[in-house]
């Protein structure tokens, strides 16, 4: 996993304020790249410098578990030992032609449960139905931990299992491009919800990845 000359050139040409923005140094990125076991059997020439900076920052500041991201990349590359990773192609411009794969981290658990039970709404029909069902079941067959324990279990374990079965778990994206049947991993991104947000992601990628991969983001990929 040592650095090659192409990677060194891309690091030297990369804007220093990007390193500062993610609160990492070039030396920290180099050390992370050369020592993280999640890169085992991965062609590092196909991981962008931007992605490596993001991953270094994630590891340094404990934002997420970095393995939750590298495990997905390993599976997409066919060198992992987990479940086959699902990915989708962006359907609309400006991101059309690029691909996204979700990764999941324990920090996303609360957001998944809020979304699943509609807890952002003042009156959630789904949560009200759950509460009524739990109350009824507790009256018929009292449990050791009471209705509170039953409700907590159904909300967390039951809710997450149901969401996972329907493949609706909320996470973040690994954005990548395909060229000559190979994946080029560009960045980690939050879900976008509008065309202006899509444009912001695309402009950011074009600014920071175009020089490194001139054959991507120009209509030549895929």
Description of the molecule:
α3 crosses α4 and α6 (109-117) crosses α8 (146-165). By secondary structure, this protein is an alpha+beta fold. It has helices at residues 5-12, 16-21, 26-35, 49-61, 67-76, 109-117, 125-140, 146-165, 195-209, and strands at 87-89, 99-103, 172-179, 182-189.
- Number of separate strands: 4
Backbone CA Rg: 21 Å
- Low-confidence segments: 1-12
Overall 3D form = elongated
Indicate the proportion of strand residues: 5-15%
Biggest sheet statistics = 4 strands, antiparallel
**Sheet with the most strands: spatial strand order:** 1-2-3-4
Decide which structural class fits the backbone: alpha+beta
End-to-end separation in angstroms reads 26 Å
Please give the share of residues in helix.
Answer: 40-55%
- Helices and strands, in order, run as HHHHHEEHHHEEH
What value does the average pLDDT take?
A: 83
Count the DSSP helices.
9
Précis, in short:
It is built from nine helices and four strands. It is α+β, with helices and mostly antiparallel strands and 222 residues long.
Write the layout of secondary structure elements.
Blueprint: H1 5-12, H2 16-21, H3 26-35, H4 49-61, H5 67-76, E1 87-89, E2 99-103, H6 109-117, H7 125-140, H8 146-165, E3 172-179, E4 182-189, H9 195-209
Antiparallel strand pairs: 1-2, 2-3, 3-4
Helix pairs in contact: 3-4, 6-8, 7-8
């Amino acid at each position: 996993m040592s650095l090659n000359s192409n990677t060194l050139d891309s690091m030297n040409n990369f804007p220093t304020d990007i390193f500062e923005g993610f609160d990492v140094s070039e030396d920290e990125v180099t050390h992370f790249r050369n020592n993280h076991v999640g890169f085992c059997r991965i062609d590092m020439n196909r991981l962008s410098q931007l992605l490596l900076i993001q991953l270094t920052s994630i590891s340094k500041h404990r934002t997420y578990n970095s393995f939750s991201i590298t495990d997905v990349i390993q599976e997409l590359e066919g060198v992992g030992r987990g479940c086959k990773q699902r990915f989708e192609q962006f359907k609309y411009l400006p991101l059309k032609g690029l691909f996204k794969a979700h990764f999941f981290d324990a920090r996303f658990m609360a957001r998944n449960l809020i979304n699943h039970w509609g807890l952002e709404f003042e009156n959630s029909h789904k949560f009200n139905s759950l509460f009524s069902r739990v109350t009824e079941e507790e009256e018929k067959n009292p449990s050791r931990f009471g209705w509170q324990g039953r409700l907590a279990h159904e909300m967390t374990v039951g809710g997450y299992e149901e969401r996972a079965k329907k493949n609706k778990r909320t996470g973040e994206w690994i954005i990548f491009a395909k060229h000559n049947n190979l994946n080029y991993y560009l960045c980690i991104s939050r879900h976008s919800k509008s065309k202006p947000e899509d444009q912001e992601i695309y402009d950011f990628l074009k600014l920071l990845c175009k020089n490194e991969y001139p054959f991507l983001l120009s209509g030549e990929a895929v």
